[in-house]
Every structure is written in C-alpha cells, then in structure tokens.
Amino acid sequence: MSQDFTQHELDPSFVFDFEAYDDDLPDGQRWSTWLSVEPLCRGPQPRPDWVVTSQAALDTDLGILKTGKEADAFLLERAVPGSEALGESVVMVAKRYRSTDHRNFHRAASYTEGRSMKRSRDERALKRNSTWGRIVAAGEWAISEWDALKRCHELGLPVPYPVQIDGTEILMEWITVEGEDGTQTAPRLAQTRPDPVLLASYFDQLRDAMATMVQDGIVHGDLSPYNVLAAGERLVIIDLPQIVDLVGNTNGMDFLLRDCTNMCTWFRARGLDVDEHDLFGDLMAHAF
Prior knowledge:
kinase, Phosphorylase Kinase, domain 1, two-stranded antiparallel ribbon
C-alpha cells in the first residue's frame, strides 16, 4: 500500500530556544576546556555539585594568586553567562607550570627518584636539562601533582578537589574563608596564630593526614607551614608535585623526617609541646 507524504508547515508553537555567543573573546577569557580534555583528565567521581560541566561556560582569569618556584597560581572563574546557579558558576585555582625560559625545578632528581618514565628519549633529555627536557619536566611535574591530588582525594585526605588537567594547567578547588571583605583565600598556616585548643586540633589533623599518606606509601616531600592552608578549623594540604615514594625513593625516610621537623618546629614555636622524632616514630608505625 502506498502512502503519500505531503509537506506541512511547522507548528507555529514549536520554537527553537537558543542563544548565540561571539567566538571573538577578549584577552583573559576562553571557552570552558572541560569537554576538550579526555575523561581521565577530569576529577574523580563523585564530583562536587559546584563543578561546572556546561559546554556554554566561559573561563575568565581573575588575576594571580601566588607565584611559586615552578608554577604560578591564578584565580579563574568558570561560569555560564548570566547564571549564578550551583553547578553553573564557580571560582577555582588554575595552577600553571611556567614556560621553559623561567622554570626552575628545585632538586628535581632527588624527588623523582623511583618514578618510571616510559620513553628513554624523554629520560635522556631530562638528564641533559635540554630545552626538550625542560618541556618534558613541566608535563611530568604537572601530571605528578594531578596524580597526587587525585590519589590523596580518594584516600580522604584534606586536599583541594582536582577538577581537571589540560597540558601543564591544573584546575582545582579554591580553598576559602569568609572574612570582613567577603570570600578570601584561606591563609597559610604560617600566617595564623591559633589559640591552644585550635593549635592542638591542627596538629592532630596534620598527624592523621601524614599517617594516612605514609600508610599508602607516600610522603609529601616538601611539607611546611607555607603549603598548608588554615580554612577555619580545618587544615588543607597543598603543593604536591614533589610527592615521594616512601620505599621506592632512597631518600624517602629523609624526606619524611624533614617534613616532621618542619611542622614540629612551627608548632613548638606556637607553644605546643611536640617532637619531630616522636612524630616520625609514630608515622613509621603506620608504614609497615
């Protein structure tokens, strides 16, 4: 049986609802890179509700937050234009490893001992500190921090949630406190003067976090009051690119003792009776 098809006019009540955006964005702004990175380059599940995944979102640089030896940290807003709803607007930290002209990876060999590299060409370039070697190093350290953030987050450690990695840029949670002037970056532990009760709580949190890391076979490697944030009553550990394998790195124990010394020195100066060797011994009980 044949059937005739006739062309009908569109129902006038059927309307396309869309908004056109200009591709010519100003300096300091780009379209969200969330969908342009591979799934493995996005943060672990379950993701926090505040993570913006919309393809319509824009990334806007808000200014520099911190300058470091190997990378600079910026504040970056990812938002759907005109929306402030949860999951459609958020401010994050964008950590960007520097260009080869400015990078200075501090004591890189001692930190990376025990890590494997798949390509011998890359390994040779790193050892020669050639231009390509420095490019490889930027990627290696970015990936190292990304992997460390994911690993620590999945262990339940107090670290910023890792949102995504794209080349040598890592987007992560912005750790904040509420102040008289509104939302601000949480201060470094070194900048705080906690009362005795909070000081003791901070030390307990730190010891528990270090114990969890040691139990998983890793050491921060550069832990100090300058890369621990005091977000109200909780501590958050940051700056993890140099994370060390406790057993695979021959300097693993030395790095752990140095971390203990750095932290105990600060806590003693604030009036808490702690000892780095006691802390080291306590942590080693979790290692084996």
